[in-house]
Amino acid sequence: MRRYTASLLLFLLVLTLGWASSGAAQEQPKAGGVLKVATIGEPPTLDLHTTTAVIVQQITWHVYEGLYTYDKSYNAVPLLVESHAISDAGRTYTFKLRRGVKFHNGKELGAADVVASLKRWGRLATPGKQLWKNVEGVEARDATTVVMFLKEPTGALLMGLARPNNGAVVYPKEIVDAAGDNPVKEYIGTGPYRFVEHKPDRHVRLARFKDYAARTDAADGFGGKRMAYVDEILFIPVPDVAVRLAGVETGEYHIGLQIQQDQYDRLKAMPGVTAGIIKPEGWTTAVLNHKQGLMTDKRVRQAFLAALDMEPIMAAGFGNKAFYRLDPGLSFPEQPQWHSRTGVELYNQKNPDKARKLLAEAGYTGQPVRWITTKEYQWMYKNALVAKQQLEAVGFKVDLQVVDWATLVQRRAKPEVWEVFSTGITFNPEPAFSTGTACNWPGWWCHADKEQWMDALARESDPRKRRAMWDKVQAIFYEDVGRVKFGDFFGLSAVRAEVHGYRATNEMNLWNVWLK
Amino acid sequence: MSVLALPGRATAVRRAGPGWLALLSRRKTTMAGAVIMTLMVTVGLLAPLIGGDPAHMEVAGRLAAPGRVHWFGTDDVGRDVWSRVVYGARLSLLVGLSVVVLAIASGVVCGTIAGYYRRLDNIVMRIMDGLMAFPAIVLAIALMAALGPSVVNVIVSIAVVYSPRVARVVRGSVLVIRETAYVEAARALGAADLTLIARHVLPNCLSPVIVQASFVFAAAVLTEAALSFLGVGVPPYVPSWGVILAEGRLYIQQAPWLVLYPGAAIMITIFGLNLFGDGLRDLLDPKIRGLATERQRAA
Amino acid sequence: MKTYVVRRLLALVPVALVVATVAFVLIHLAPGDPASVIAGPDASRDDVQRIEKQLGLDAPLPLQLVRWYGRLVQGDLGQSIFLRKPVTDAILDRVEPTLLLTLFAMAVSVAIGVPAGVLSARYHNTATDQAVMVVALLGVSIPNFLLGLLFVLFFSVWLGWFPVAGYSPLEYGWLKTLRSLVLPAFALGLVQSALIARIARSSMLDILREQFITAGRAKGLSERAVIYKHALKNAMIPTVTIIGISFAILISGAVVVETVFNIPGLGRLIISAVLRRDYPVIQGVVLCIAGLYMLINLAVDLSYLIFDPRVKYQ
Predict the structure, then answer these.
(1) Is the entire prediction scored with pTM above 0.90?
(2) C-chain residues within 8 Å CB-CB of A252?
């Protein structure tokens, strides 16, 4: 009897151990499978140097890599670089590249490739052009060393190089030379996945790069070791958000991006599907035209700002209260080192009387305010619709022009055709390169003091001093009504339960992700 | 263009007997169609009185189910769906009528010229045939792409698409009437072309044109809804049944009223128009049945 | 007979010319100068000028038209601005789903419509007839995209029988392809079957009234023989016409339904081209569809040589 009990206990123990270990085994990544991601639509290009479109970054940063990237706290950590040294009072950066990193065409990464790519990025990319204002030159000292000479010391260089969107990624020198300022013809990088094919309106197909040289340090945020578990990734353009979500529900896609926030409750209830919340994704805004037209008059701008009640504007755009919040900051509460409530008394004023008074002072006689928006980002359209109602209640006459995103991007470059356009400023860990406050970006908000502070911000290294400068910029943002911020919003993606290791972020990385 | 496009034979002689109202009401289906049409027209005309404000957004009450306050519920930005459907009727009425007027006007002019002046017949009809070689919705989409989204452009595009069909029918009638002894005699006597056309030829084309008008109206309502649904019709803040359908698609599970009410409105309206149109055709052109008319309706 | 064929072919030429001209005019209807309208996002002065040169928009209008005809005759539909590949390639990429959907929908519409129409004619003026006709009229009144939406709600979301959207290309197996096309094909096909039923019914009724049918009945032939042997054979002419028109109508219906079901066919191509201002693609698709329409009409007309003895002896 006792032996029986003993063996029974032993048996149970083995069972439990087996169960526990298989549970642990479930956490073990498994290689294989084809990961299908439903995106908002066709990428306008696959050349990351040439566009700030988020969809391009989300696809191509599995193919290309840059010198630096972000860790979990959005600090810059080395990626292609082994180490760097700063000298000459912060004006010279010497980067030592990692050895044995291969491009997808077999070529080994060298300093010449980095120099060529950086120069191109500095010429063509929006953050690149901004950063390059401070760059004296860049050269290859030897096969694995790149040296960068700056005009002034800056605290933002590494962050600028780490930024994924419109990022400073490295192409082989031959491809850079062949392309010049035109888009590159071949998509060769050093990333864990290589480009296979792009069938427009069907998919972009990536496959695991067998000779990928992964870093050895542990994965941390986007940095550290990058493992390509799945065999292939398919990015499928599904412009219809209803179809996107339904596709994840039925298992046709593994991940669906940019799901409408008011579908959250439905998503939660779906079996086999989890919600990926990106907090924060960005802040939505109406960009005012400071170069030409009605909005050059400060009183008109102030009237615009005074009339708005942000709550219904954001509620209409995002539906679910858990996905937006009203906050005046140019940075987010998730970034305590930058977030500030300066100017809060001017944010969300809900003051129609003040607006009417200002309009009267400015001598407004009913000239149409041309507002360009798009339905391709549903929330842009809805923000504009509600704001239009509020503005018209105080006497503005708003001409709402709804076009496709591509046309909006084209029109916003022409100051003579609009007074306001809709957009969103996505989360950016480094304010010095923020498009939200830039002078050389459509809207052309150039304010002498603000420019001074932005330049100083780019050069300063002391975090406390930088924060104070950013605060000053924010104060001017509200006083001068640079742009009109509606509120912060969070993104929603739909992820099937078979997908493991996935973290929902704006940038969306699919390395270290596996299917089971 | 083909053997089976037979020209219409107009009932030139006015019938002594029961008036047209009595004739129409003989068939229950036609009456039903007439009733539905009248209902739709009334709703459209009275929209400012019974519709409320289709643009007013009460964001806090968005996606509310139909109830006492909002008879058809509210949409995703808190607009009253009853309001939007009613104003959608108004828009459909506006688009339908305008398209009919434009298409009939241009169709009659082209058809008469083609039928009356033999030398111009070929050229005009080739152009009409060319336009009809494009399926209606495809040509409408292409025209909207060129002209840009607005209510006026939608009306113009749809009118351009459907006037060749009207021209065809008118030409057929004119061809037949031209050959009648009555008209030949009048011409021999030196009557001016314009007088002849206005007083003798045109009135006898009335029946097929009226029949066409009802088809064109139905087609215009349907095409506008399709264009707006696809996103290439009226601008999205104009209340149109097609727009409401497109916007309501995402919420079809949580808020099916966004799809069901405008969908029902479209169906009922076109059903009524078709019923009425069929009755009209049976009354005015009983000889024309089957293939030719259906081909016209379908094309 | 030969003259008939030749005449029909020649009749195509002026129509084709008009079609080509209409497609050409589209670019110039847009307000503003065509090159900057087409040039696309972030276009610089250089981009605009490049497009002008590429599309030959700097030449005088008549010359542009002649060049356009010339290119069309050679089968050159131009280059897509957005996709950066020849329009012909873009169209060939996407013609498979549209064609398959159209064929499937046609099968559905004929399989349902013809028997319904014949049945209705057989039991003319009875309750069956009235019922079928009312249902058919209802079918003609419902927009195909609305029916498609309702199908998605019912069959995909609630019942889960069919995929909610998307298209499985033939290379992955024809069974999967069929399954992905069931809902859109029925959405298109049911609406079309209503039309076919009406036409089939009217044609059958017309024929049943003909003398030779009465003669057949008088001869004592069974009702069955009357209907199937004599009436139906003669109803082939309009039937073939129906099938021809249906094919053409269904292609245009596919344009709308493809959007509902996210099928990457010609319909989606033209809609996304419109939204992206990709005029060469719009022109190309419109031309292709019109060309197909014309060919089908030609085929139908030529088929009368077989079915309609009156034509043979013209």
Answers:
(1) no
(2) 163-166
